[in-house]
Recover the amino acids of this structure.
C-alpha cells in the first residue's frame, strides 16, 4: 500500500524541504519507489533535487488546474533517485485559480488517485502556511511528518498546526495520522537545544522520533549544489541522521500497518458475532 506523507509546518526555516528531499533520497537508496511533490511555491525541493526551475515546461500547478498530465509534469528518476513533481512561484496562481472551483481542496487527492499506486512512498513538501495548498496536501495524505526546529519558539504554532490536522481528520480525511515529529537543527553544544527537545518530548511523547537531525554545515551546503545531503556527502552527520530517520519511519509504518490489520480483524470478528 502506498504511503502518502505530507511534510508540513506553517513556520518557515524549520528544515521541512531538507527533510523531504533527504528522506526521498534515502528511501530511494533503500530500494523504494518514491515520488516527491514540491508543493511549495518557493520551489526549493525542485532546485534541491538538481532541477532548474526556469527550464520546467510542465509542473504541479498545471496538474492541479487540469492543464498538464501527470506524465508531462513528472520528472522521472532525478539524480537523487526519486521521481519529482516540480514547482515554482507560479504555483501561487493555482491557489488563486482553485478558489470557487468544485472539490478545490481535493484536487491533489484526485490527481494522486491513480498515480500514487506506482509508488511505495509519496512525500509532499507543503508550503510554510496553513493555506489551500497545505489543506490539499493534508487531504491527499495518510500520514504527516512535522519538522520542529530546536529553537526558543519551537512549540509556538505547533498547537495550531495539530488543531488544523485534527480538523482535517475529523471533517475531510479520517485516515490522516501524525506519522511523527522530527527535531531538526539540533546543536548538542547549545543548552537550548536540549531544553527544546525535553519540552517537545514531554508534550508529544512517542510521536517524536528518536532520531534528531543535527545542525550540520554539509546539510546547509547541499541545496546550493542541487543535491540532497545524502548525495553531496554520504558520510556527514546530517546524512547519517536522515538514514536513521528513514529506518525509523519504515519501522513505524510496519507498526501502523500491523495495528490497522489487527483493528480490521477485530471489526470483522465483531460483525460475525453480531
Amino acid at each position: 500500500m502506498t504511503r502518502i506523507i505530507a511534510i508540513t509546518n506553517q513556520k518557515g526555516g524549520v528544515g521541512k524541504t531538507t527533510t523531504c528531499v533527504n528522506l526521498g533520497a534515502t528511501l530511494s537508496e533503500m530500494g523504494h519507489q518514491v515520488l516527491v511533490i514540491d508543493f511549495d511555491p518557493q520551489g526549493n525541493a525542485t532546485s534541491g533535487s538538481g532541477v532548474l526551475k526556469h527550464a520546467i515546461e510542465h509542473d504541479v500547478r498545471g496538474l492541479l488546474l487540469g492543464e498538464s498530465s501527470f506524465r508531462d509534469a513528472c520528472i522521472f528518476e532525478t539524480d537523487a533517485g526519486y521521481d519529482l513533481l516540480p514547482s515554482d512561484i507560479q504555483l501561487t496562481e493555482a491557489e488563486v485559480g482553485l478558489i470557487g472551483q468544485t472539490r478545490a481542496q481535493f484536487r491533489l487527492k484526485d490527481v494522486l488517485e491513480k498515480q500514487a499506486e506506482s509508488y511505495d512512498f509519496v512525500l509532499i513538501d507543503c508550503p510554510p502556511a496553513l493555506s489551500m495548498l497545505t489543506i490539499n496536501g493534508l487531504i491527499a495524505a495518510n500520514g504527516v511528518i512535522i519538522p520542529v526546529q530546536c529553537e526558543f519558539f519551537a512549540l509556538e504554532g505547533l498547537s495550531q498546526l495539530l488543531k488544523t490536522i485534527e480538523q482535517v481528520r475529523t471533517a475531510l480525511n479520517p485516515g490522516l495520522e501524525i506519522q511523527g515529529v522530527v527535531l531538526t537543527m539540533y546543536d548538542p553544544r547549545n543548552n537550548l537545544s536540549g531544553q527544546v527537545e525535553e519540552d517537545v518530548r514531554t508534550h508529544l511523547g512517542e510521536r517524536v522520533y528518536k532520531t534528531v537531525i543535527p545542525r550540520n554545515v554539509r546539510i546547509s551546503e547541499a541545496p546550493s549544489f542541487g543535491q540532497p545531503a545524502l548525495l553531496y556527502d554520504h558520510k556527514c552527520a546530517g546524512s547519517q541522521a536522515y538514514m536513521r530517520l528513514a529506518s525509523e519511519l519504515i519501522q513505524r509504518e510496519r507498526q501502523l500497518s500491523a495495528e490497522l490489520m489487527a483493528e480490521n480483524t477485530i471489526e470483522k470478528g465483531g460483525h460475525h458475532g453480531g
